[in-house]
Design brief:
This protein is an alpha/beta fold and 293 residues long. The chain contains 6 helices and 13 strands. The chain folds into 2 domains: 201 residues, Zn peptidases (Aminopeptidase), CATH 3.40.630.10; 78 residues, Single Sheet (N-terminal domain of TfIIb). The strands form 2 sheets. The protein has a 10-stranded mixed beta sheet with strand order 2-1-3-6-4-5-7-13-12-9. β1, α1 and β2 form a beta-alpha-beta unit. The longest helix has 22 residues. The protein is globular. The structure holds zinc ion. Zinc ion (ZN) binds next to loops.
């Protein structure tokens, strides 16, 4: 039974879709109203939102590991904020959490379409995802075990995931992606309501996922500067196969660097926020996950 769900926007201050969805819902809370559970909406990184940047001191969506939440010496803006949010929407790992489900709204400059980034393996999280893949057949599911384990916003609740929609530049609102994100949230709320009311849902027993394999960095020189860009043949080909010998990067001299790894799928290609994190794209395996309900 889900008693309370949180929808969070503006975890990254330059991703406007989630920020403006929260504003829209604040003006009209009836859009979110469902009979069987309570919903809370929250703008997350207010200072970064005001300044139109991803974060102030460091990435808020990497600030929720148990280690940093319990480190009293961490006093950066986001570290303090993460602890406040954990008190309100967590606490992480608690058997009596304040919120049962968190959906965190993001956008990406990569051509990810409508996608979910999930690290949680709870039964309810995956039932919700199974339902959403039926309601929105274009939805892609990326199971992330990326740069920092268990440090996402949604990790402080027992169930949850991030919605990641693109491509849209940082600091830009696009109505089409705004509406897609909004519709996906409403499907999620409908699912929770039906689940709470024990409605028979005939959920699919299998979900196609992209399972995280590795982070792929740009070619760099000895000073750690990027010396090549994503090749034009790879740009925008998120959720596409990449095979040995495929063009991957183009150097400033116009030379092509070819992919040499095993056959995988490329995701988050050329995401603006990942230049500083040191990856040009991520690589994933496509799998069919069997779900037991
Ligand atoms: Zn984001």
């Amino acid at each position: 039974m889900i008693k309370k769900l949180a929808i969070t926007g503006g975890t990254h201050g330059n991703e406007l879709t989630g920020i403006y969805l929260v504003k829209r819902w604040r003006q009209n809370l009836t859009l979110l109203k469902r009979e069987s559970f309570e919903i809370t909406i929250r703008l997350m990184n207010l200072k970064a939102i005001k300044e139109g940047r991803r974060y102030v001191d460091h990435d808020l969506n990497r600030s929720f590991s148990l280690k940093s939440l319990s480190d009293n010496n961490l006093e950066t803006y986001e570290a303090v904020l993460a602890k406040e949010i954990n008190t309100l929407l967590g606490e992480k790992g608690s058997i009596h959490p304040n919120v049962d489900f968190i959906v965190d709204l993001h956008t990406t400059t990569a051509n990810m379409g409508l996608s979910i980034v999930v690290s949680n393996d709870s039964k309810l999280t995956w039932e919700a995802i199974a339902y959403l893949t039926i309601m929105e057949p274009e939805l892609k599911v990326y199971r992330w075990q990326g740069d920092e384990e268990g440090a996402f916003v949604d990790s402080i609740a027992p169930n949850g995931f991030a919605i990641e929609v693109g491509s849209v530049p940082q600091g830009v609102l696009r109505a089409d992606l705004f509406l897609k994100t909004e519709a996906l949230v409403y499907h999620l709320l409908d699912f929770i309501d039906k689940h709470n009311k024990n409605e028979v849902l005939n959920l699919p027993r299998e979900v196609e996922i992209y399972d995280h394999e590795e982070l792929l960095d740009y070619p760099r020189n000895e000073e750690d500067e990027i010396v090549a860009m994503v090749h034009q043949d790879r740009q925008d080909r998120d959720f596409s196969l990449i095979e040995k010998g495929d063009p991957l990067f183009m150097t400033l001299e116009g030379e092509t660097i070819y992919y040499e790894g095993e056959t995988l799928y490329t995701l988050f290609i050329n995401e603006a926020a990942y230049y500083e994190k040191g990856f040009a794209m991520t690589l994933a395996q496509k799998k069919v996950l069997s779900l037991v309900f």
